[in-house]
Amino acid sequence: MNIRFLGTGAAEGIPSFGCTCRQCKLARKEGGLNVRKRASLLVEVNSRRILLDTPPEISLLLNQAEVFNLTAIFLSHEHYDHIGGLIEFEFWNQVLPIFAGFDTLPHLRLTPRLESRALLSGFSTQSFLHFADLRIMPFKVSPHVPCYGFSFEANRKRVVHFTDSSSELSDLHRHIAKEADLVIFHTPTFETNRNHLSVQNVISLVKDSSLKRVIITHINHNNFSHTELEEKVAPWAITVAHDGLSLEV
User: Fold this and answer.
1) Residue 199's domain spans which residues?
2) In a domain, 199, yes or no
3) pTM for the whole thing?
């Protein structure tokens, strides 16, 4: 299973439009790994390609990654930074299956052209969807807005993706993450945030749990620079994702 981080920024991206904070200035000046487009993930198993979320710049991200075909799109929730680029697919060259929670589907806005090209399907929490050797299970991660994380299983490997999870994980969440080969967390800020997991929350989780491999993404401009963040999480062997990061699981 190949995992590609197309974008790794939070809702604002880095540099954030109109912002002159330290991190945004650094990103404009130095570029490189400090620049983060909004978060999207590509999961590839053999010839199957699943795109997780469609930020507003998704067409740019897919062009940069040279991705010209998709098996399906999965949408985690209704926030603009996760579905704002869906309309870009009205000119996609194939009929495209799009999956979202039944409670998210009513919030999608499609053009007539996209409606004629999209196969919309709803999913329920902790149900399984099969794409040949790849099995996907959505699960609820936040009580604030209907939002889903995803478990991806293929070839006896399992990747768990906590999309915009709230700051407290339940026993169910810990069970889903247990024994996974890779767990990905969205951590906009370093310090505790009441609406989202923070880097500090993830460090505490790694200390208390036997997680095999952890990556953090969905990072905003109130966090540290890429290098600073790597230094702070290095003692716990946490990987800081960057735009374009690709790895095999």
Assistant:
1) 2-241
2) yes
3) 0.96
